[in-house]
Amino acid sequence: MYDALTQSAVWRVKTPKSGLVAIALAAIVLALAPVAIGPGSLRLLVEVFTMIALAQAWNLLAGYTGFVSVGQQAFIGIGAYGMFAVALKMGLNPFSSVLVGGIVAAVIGAFAALALFRLRGPYFAIGTWVLAELFRIFFINTQYFGGASGLTLARVLRGIPRDVRLNTTYWLALALALGSTLLIYLLLRSRFGLAVRTVRDNEASAESAGVNVWGTKFMVFVLASFITGCAGAILYLNTMFVGANAAFSVKWSALIIFVVIIGGIGTIEGPIVGALVYFTLREYLSDFGTWYIITFGLVAIAAMIVAPQGIWGYVAGRFKYHLFPVEAEISKDLPR
Amino acid sequence: MTGLIDMLVQGLLLGGFFALSGLGLSLSFGIMRIVNIAHGDFLVVAAYLGVVITGLFGINPIVAIALIMPLMFVLGWGLQKTILNRAVDGGELSPLLITFGLSIVLHNALQEIFSADFRSLDAGPVEVASLAIGDIRIGWFALSILIVAVLVYALVSWLMRKTTFGRIVRATVDDPEVSGLMGVDTKKVYCLGMGISMAIIGISGALYGIKSSFSPLTGGDQLLFAFEAVIIGGMGSIWGTLLGGLTLGIAQVIGFSIHSGWGAFAGHLVFFLFLFLKPSGLLSKGDSHV
Fold it and tell me: Chief subcellular site (chain A) (predicted)?
């Protein structure tokens, strides 16, 4: 019998194709959607796609690396304000400005990490919320960024036909959702992904196995900040108006966390499933005002206690199926 | 010069409140390793309990504290017993996410019940009475909060260091498994811990409701202020939290004097400065475990 311990075993992840095929198919079908559906549905899909990206980024932090942020709104707001600032003040094309928004968020995330990583365990989570509040108060009191009345993109979008604007925003959101899913998927299947999960499972033993714990967490945090910043920029490109109270609201983190918990934390599929469940519920229940948020929150709390693996975790466990397998196994192929 | 001394005094008085509220937060982390993200929302819940109790019995909110504290104790005990004890063995992640979920549920539910309007508890003339020392006015009520904070600190410190209960708690914190083998019912210790933490949130919340206006949405800020008091003071040290609260109070008063919008900002900034320059806080661990 093959004994993994006596051979120089190879870390491999099985069935590598299914996820890539799924992403390619989704890309083709969804990219063509603007031909078939109206502006209202396009705007909704922009929200769905950005939520998938936001949830993937948070899941990379909490589900795979093991550190929770409740301050993701910091990077949503910074991405949005970064994008609005370069588009309005420097005259850069608002669509290209989305990337700038993401980069600004990543840079600020890198600096913030230097301070926030000094907070141990769950205190890190509240630290990220302080970061968001710091920026909210800054933007609301700074007239250069519109102060309490916020900023509007109307002036720079005036020359662009409505169809072009809607479709480009849609494609940006689609690219971000698929791109972040693919990037995180490939990342987690690499050596780096193995390091990431080792850090989550036990920082001390990761360190002793030669993993650079601080560096690994730093890279993950900066990447998550970048994705979240891009998502924030696209969200507010979609609405064409940004105000600090809404952009830096803790509601964003609440939604992201509920989506990932209900969908299935620590799986690539979970954030997608959770986002679809959330938007389906929202379409039907939003007439009930805040009650649907309360219900969603209670379901998430119940899920944490009785079914912490979430919807996808349950499905995957039940049917032994992963669309995006990332857990490494010892390969049966002997190295030749 | 008088202006500077005045700011320092007002900062200390404000800080007394942050210190009191911060103690509730640091106790639940110290004992159960639970960071209660719903801390601020429970503070607001206590303030609304004050609204209900003063409305029902027509009593002064200061008297109502005698009812609010035991009610919050029971709420804390129940929360730990029914929900958090099930999550506490699964690492730090799940209690954190559960209290975050609770926070969102609580403030939305409070908004449904009490509307988003701002309220305040009216304690009568004691709220505005003040003591003048030269040009500096010291509010009696703010001074009483600071005194109450110091008394509660002394009480908790005594409870943890000198009593059998404190010894059991410290043993549970050090090693829950071995304490369990020695016959300690750790889950019950956690229930008591959460109860005490919530009773302190109860008195802080009632005083908060008298001192300032509140709405269902002001809980988030209160969590952050309590948290900053804990971190600036140094994690794991109760007396540190008191100093941290006072530091935060002074920072906020100075920020507020520059422009009314920048009070909380200055506090957040000082918090980040501490993380960069002195991450272990004013008094770091070693002095006490809880």
Answer: membrane
Q: What is the pLDDT of residues A123-151, one digit of tens each?
A: 899 999 999 999 999 999 999 999 999 99
**A42 half-sphere exposure, CB direction, 13 A CA radius:** 23
Q: How many angstroms away from the CA of A180 is the closest CA of chain B?
A: 24
* CB-CB contact of A160 with A105 (8 Å): no
User: Does B4 contact A at CB distance below 8 Å?
Assistant: no
Would you say residue A198 lies in a domain?
yes
Total number of domains in chain A: 1
Residue A304, domain member (yes or no): no
Q: What is the ipTM of this complex?
A: 0.91
Asked if pLDDT for residue A7 goes beyond 50, the answer is no
B29 pLDDT above the threshold of 80: yes
Of B83, B221, B269, the CB nearest to A305: B83
Residue A141 to residue B265, Cβ atoms within 8 A: yes
Q: Would you list the domain boundaries of chain B?
A: 2-229
The predicted structure's pLDDT at residue B94: 86
- Helix (H) or strand (E) holding A103, with range, is helix A94-116
Residue A14 pLDDT > 60, yes or no? no
Phi and psi torsions of B283, nearest 5°? -120, 115
- For B86, name the nearest residue in chain A, comparing CA atoms only: A305
Mutation choice for A interface testing from B18, B105, B225 by most A CBs within 10 A: B105
Q: Which residues pair with A11 in a beta bridge?
A: A330
> Is residue B83 less than 8 Å (CB to CB) from chain A?
yes
The Cα–Cα gap between A176 and A46 comes to 10
In a domain, A335, yes or no: no
Signed CA dihedral, A14, A15, A17, A21: sign only: negative
Give which of B80, B93, B280, B285 to mutate to test A binding, by max A Cβ within 10 Å. B93
State the pTM of this model.
0.91
Share of residues in chain A with pLDDT > 70 (%):
92
Single out the residue of B110, B112, B141, B123 nearest to residue B218, CA to CA.
B110
Residue A53, in any domain of the structure: yes
What would the pLDDT profile of A46-57 be if each residue is shown by its tens digit? 999 999 999 999
